[in-house]
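Hello Y.,

Per our agreement to keep a running log of every chain we model this quarter, I'm adding this entry. I've kept the format consistent with earlier entries: sequence first, then predicted structure.
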Amino acid sequence: MDHFLYRNGALHAEDVPVAVIAAAVGTPFYVYSTATLTRHYHLFTEALAPLPNLVCFAIKSLSNVAVLKTLGDLGAGMDVVSGGEYLRAKAAGVPGERIVFSGVGKTREEMRLALEGGIRQFNVEGEPELRALSEVAAGLGRTAPITIRVNPDVDARTHEKIATGKKENKFGIPIERASAVYAEAAALPGIEVIGIDVHIGSQLTELEPFEQAYLKVADLTRRLRSEGHDIRRLDLGGGLGIPYTRSNEAPPLPTDYGALIKRTVGDLGCEIEIEPGRLISGNAGLLVASVIYVKNGEGRDFLILDAAMNDLVRPSMYGAHHDIIPVIEPAPGTAPHPYDVVGPVCETGDTFAKGRPVAPLREGDLVAFRSAGAYGAVMASEYNTRPLVPEVLVKGDQFAVIRARPSFDEILKRDTIPSWLE
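Predicted structure for the entry above:
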């Protein structure tokens, strides 16, 4: 469920007409719903209760500081994968004890930043990182709390570019080597082993892969405890998918996911962490664009929008589907027309959909891409010197620009001319 609905024939973001935002901000723009973010966060906390838990929002899905503050003020933790994301979480007022540092390529500078600023734990991906973290922590006279990410070799049955739990993926250590790596961690200075981490992929639409992975984690917990390790926290990752169409696609609900967690690892007495991103932010956002031209081609018609692949790259990168709807609700009985929906970038790949049935549209009409809150603005670029898309946050009948569209002067001033060209 989201809070983007038609009222009196006009698409609203909560209580604000989308067309009103477009008139104030210009298109294209992203708009996020506070009510949807809040509801989706609480779905997870309620699903995990009464287990001790922390729901850590995966910042990589949507990193605007205003969104992070919205969730942080509700009590959410944050899952970060870079020093920049760590600083975003801190800027949103999230304390270090609610920030988890994940990612396969943490640098010593990032480790130092988190150790000095406060950190809940590092999710360590391998022995080289473990030794580097020991070196940095010991040098600072600090102790780094860690989990070690194990790779359970489970097929998440998702897109190959977002599967992370198979043995050929770059993430974690093979679960068969866990005993040896945990033994090394326990012997290193500046390291405190507190738990186990696992994450098998993103946009999972069934629970069986989670169950396979979590049962392996439960067995590993018992084994590591028998070997003398104090395993008291399980980081179970994220990855639960969302419906990108309004058809029969129905990924599992957070309640079913919570029941699975209780069934597989709930008897271990561990604190549970999960790191949802897409399910909290995905359906909480729209990308709104204007029709520049309707072009008649050879056997097909094109909707040419002012949004492009650099604003929403998922269709080009993953072949991803986003429902595309008009901001003004079509009259009852209006027959849809098939369009190739494209952007203005000089790439054939700048295509959002082919042959997509949409109500007939004209130049200047507004359209909205549903389910665009996750991996939308965070993956945007200024390709073709197109300014980054502004972001807007709505709460009830209020809206605010939470990232402004840069001017061309601001973009050009970032470049510098070396002295030999002056």
